[in-house]
């Protein structure tokens, strides 16, 4: 099985937005978009990303959050149209990032699930059961989609996976029917320590150790995350089982910095082993190519 991980595409759209929409945490996000992050995630690059992913003839695409900038309705509409070019429930799994639950209003309204609930849950799933984690059996691979996205105060971007989600993940992935499956868990926030003490405090996954512990209990082979925009990969081995933790970086970041330039990963699973290759954006060729 071959699947892609894309992340942190931050698709912008301000159509129909009024000043009232920024009378909350969005004011700091908007200022950031107008200054330091201006033009850093252009829509045309997101369109090229989706076209390139489609050309790879993959079995599935996993999106590890931050699909919007400010969780505005227009942003969700625009990114939904883009991502649905990749398929529906059988072809696409999307989890929220902190930018997709940017305000308490967007959380209360269930905005993320209103646009992407149908790619996480089967049509016959009752509304009351459309909660994280979402579990999918994709042939040789089982996917567990977790949510670490919680609304925070301005300048904070931390996340947390609830104890209920972790309990349900262990219960679902530990069944005899899934014993031989290659298991992938998705979470938005990064699990590796941040270089900056402020970043570690303000944007960490608050219960990273608990998430890792429970992934081992559930027999997870690969834990994918986003959030940092900087690709990383490391492994942890306990009692003969190895958990690989991989962050893809941002898939739409337009920059000359080779460590941060837009990229996404393609993973090939064979039995209980996997191999990852990366496609990166060439600013001069204006296309994605294989990272050598």
What ranges have pLDDT less than 50 throughout 5 or more consecutive residues? Answer: none
Strand content: 15-25%
Residue share in helix: 25-40%
DSSP helical segment count: 8
Q: Total strand count, please?
A: 12
* Helix and strand element order: EHHEHEHHEEHEHHEEEEEE
Instruction: Give the strand line-up of the largest sheet.
Output: 3-2-1-10-11-12
Please give a structural write-up.
This protein is of the alpha/beta class and 292 residues long. The protein contains eight helices and twelve strands. The strands form two sheets. Strands 3-2-1-10-11-12 form a six-stranded mixed sheet. It is globular.
Task: Please describe the topology of this protein.
Blueprint: E1 2-6, H1 26-34, H2 43-55, E2 60-64, H3 73-83, E3 92-95, H4 104-108, H5 111-120, E4 134-138, E5 141-145, H6 163-173, E6 182-186, H7 197-202, H8 208-218, E7 222-225, E8 232-238, E9 241-247, E10 263-270, E11 273-282, E12 287-290
Parallel strand pairs: 1-2, 2-3, 5-6, 6-7, 7-9
Antiparallel strand pairs: 1-10, 4-5, 8-9, 10-11, 11-12
Give short descriptive properties of this protein.
alpha/beta, six-stranded mixed beta sheet, 26% helix
Quickly describe the structure.
By secondary structure, this protein is of the alpha/beta class. Helices cover 26% and strands 24% of the residues. The chain has helices spanning 26-34, 43-55, 73-83, 104-108, 111-120, 163-173, 197-202, 208-218, and strands at residues 2-6, 60-64, 92-95, 134-138, 141-145, 182-186, 222-225, 232-238, 241-247, 263-270, 273-282, 287-290.
């Amino acid at each position: 099985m071959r699947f892609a991980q894309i992340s942190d595409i931050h698709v912008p759209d301000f159509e129909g937005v009024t000043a009232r929409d920024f009378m909350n945490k969005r004011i700091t996000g908007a200022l950031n978009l107008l200054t330091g992050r201006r033009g850093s995630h252009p829509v045309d690059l997101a369109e090229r990303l989706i076209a390139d992913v489609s050309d790879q003839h993959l079995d599935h695409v996993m999106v590890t959050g931050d699909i919007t900038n400010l969780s505005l309705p227009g942003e969700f509409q625009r990114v939904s149209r883009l991502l649905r070019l990749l398929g529906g429930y059988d072809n696409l799994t999307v989890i929220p990032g902190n930018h997709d639950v940017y305000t308490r209003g967007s959380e209360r309204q269930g905005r993320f699930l209103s646009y992407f609930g149908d790619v996480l849950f089967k049509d016959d799933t009752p509304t009351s059961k459309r909660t994280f984690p979402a579990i999918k059996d994709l042939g040789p691979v089982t996917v567990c989609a977790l949510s670490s996205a919680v609304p925070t105060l301005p300048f904070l971007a931390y996340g947390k996976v609830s104890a209920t989600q972790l309990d349900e993940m262990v219960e679902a992935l530990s069944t005899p029917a899934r014993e031989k499956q290659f298991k992938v868990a998705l979470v938005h926030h990064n699990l590796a320590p941040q270089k900056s003490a402020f970043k570690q405090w303000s944007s960490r996954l608050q219960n990273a150790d608990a998430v890792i512990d429970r992934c081992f209990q559930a027999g997870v082979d690969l834990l994918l995350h986003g959030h940092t925009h900087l690709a990383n990969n490391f492994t942890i081995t306990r009692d003969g089982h190895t958990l690989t933790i991989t962050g893809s970086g941002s898939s739409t970041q337009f920059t000359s910095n080779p460590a941060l330039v837009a990229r996404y990963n393609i993973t090939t699973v064979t039995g209980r082993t996997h191999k990852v290759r990366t496609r990166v954006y060439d600013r001069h060729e204006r296309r994605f190519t294989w990272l050598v």
